[in-house]
Specification:
The chain has 420 residues and is of the alpha+beta class. It contains ten helices and 26 strands. Calcium ion (CA) binds next to loops.
């Protein structure tokens, strides 16, 4: 719900710094750092919740105060939307009230760690353009979209154990590959790729046997992060039938460290997702009932080791938007739990690669270079079809509209290390 915390004229006593501001007072995203526990970003600083509560600058009931002084966000997420909003309002009041810099720590001094313990991670495949492009490449003779695609959000159960925080190096995986002209071999992945996605952290879950209906689904989501689902295309191509991705997707998925809450995103919600002429009707349990499409913009850039050594800026590849999804996070959650599958606080669901309909909005190298047939010229004179050792992939995201303050997500970055 849009309220006074989204007021464009609201100003904090915290200095915002110069340049583009990701974390104005209208945002207040959540993170965890190794030294101070739970923190909330504001400008180029972060509120240390332990300090603010310990000094009496923030006052809450015992269950909220206790959750906010732990080393992960799981307990706070489990409290529910009313408590998340209460804490947002209290933080807002503190940050526009009397100055209390003793509760702050500079972002540059924080060692950010995983914001929550992720029990289960599920990745979806919710952008039709991505599914269509991949379908054309992997199954050139048939309909690129499988018959189920427009009836349900397709997903697979991923590995929570390999979700890592932005800045973690990514080791090139090895695996079983099938060259066109020989028997399978075990070798380092040659077709290493990123996938431009977002992840939704589940705040409150459901008991086994219960469902989360569409009209309640957004209430269960705590917030959103950028997600890079690193992918080994050559491993994927050989292993994916008949049960879908396995080792091609289980070695690393990076997330941005700051969780932007659904409350902060209130001014950027839209109706939808749009269906196209001729699309089949959606079954009742998946019909959108609230403004659950999030208008979040994103872009992906790449830099080689040499570019960084020579001080050359990273090269922007594609720019996309979460509005490109054919299925919303609410629909993914309603479908995921439609069998009574329980979700827990801190579970993560990924959107799937967010590609638009144009080349400059394709969300992975497989699509962007069209399986390597349209290589990218980097400013250091080299070419890329897929990722090389030393390459850094940086995803940025933000929300912008004429009627709300711009908010950002920070970066989701990772550098490829050689295989071991
Ligand atoms: Ca993916």
């Amino acid at each position: 719900m849009i309220d006074h915390t989204h007021d464009m004229s609201a100003m904090s006593w915290v200095e915002m710094g110069s340049g583009r501001i990701d974390f104005p007072i209208q945002n207040l995203p959540w993170g965890v750092c190794s030294k101070h526990g739970i923190v909330v970003a504001i400008g180029e600083q972060a509120v240390v919740l332990r300090e603010a509560i310990g000094l009496g600058k923030l006052q809450f009931a015992d269950d909220i105060a206790s959750a906010l002084q732990s080393d992960s966000l799981n307990a706070f997420m489990a409290l529910g939307h009313a408590d998340w909003t209460e804490v947002r309002h209290a933080l807002f009041e503190m940050l526009i009230g009397e100055s209390c810099p003793e509760v702050l720590c500079a972002l540059s001094e924080l060692m950010l760690v995983m914001p929550a313990q992720i029990g289960d991670y599920t990745d979806f495949y919710a952008a039709r353009n991505h599914a269509t492009n991949v379908g054309k490449m992997f199954r050139p003779d048939g309909d690129p979209l499988m018959p189920n695609y427009l009836h349900l959000p397709v997903g697979y159960h991923g590995r929570a154990s390999s979700v890592v925080i932005s800045g973690t190096d990514i080791r090139r995986p090895q695996g079983q590959l099938k060259p066109d002209d020989s028997a399978p071999i075990f070798a380092p992945c040659k077709l290493l790729d990123y996938e431009l996605e977002f992840g939704a952290f589940i705040g409150t879950g459901n008991a086994i046997g219960d469902r989360i209906p569409m009209d309640d689904a957004m209430e269960h989501i705590f917030g959103i992060v950028i997600l890079n689902d690193w992918s080994a295309r050559d491993i994927q191509k050989w292993e994916y039938q008949p049960l879908g991705p396995f080792n091609a997707k289980n070695f690393a998925s990076s997330i941005s460290p700051w969780i932007v809450t659904i409350d902060a995103l209130a001014p950027f919600r839209e109706e939808g997702p749009a269906r196209l002429d001729g699309d089949p009707d959606i079954l009742e349990y998946l019909k959108p009932v609230t403004d659950d499409v999030l208008d979040i913009q994103c872009c992906v850039s790449i830099s080689s080791t040499k570019m960084r050594e020579d001080g050359i800026d990273s090269l922007q590849l594609s720019k996309s938007s979460l509005t490109n999804l054919t299925w919303s996070f609410a629909q993914m959650l309603a479908h995921h739990t439609s069998t009574g599958c329980p979700m827990n606080s801190g579970d993560l669901i990924g959107s799937g690669t967010i590609s638009g309909g144009t080349k400059d909005s394709r969300g992975c190298l497989l699509e962007y270079t069209w399986r390597g047939t349209e290589p990218i010229d980097l400013p250091d004179g080299t070419q890329r079809r897929f990722l090389q050792d030393g390459d850094e992939v940086i995803i940025k995201a933000w929300c912008e509209s004429g009627s709300a303050t711009r908010i950002g997500f920070g970066d989701c970055a990772g550098i490829i290390l050689p295989h071991n």
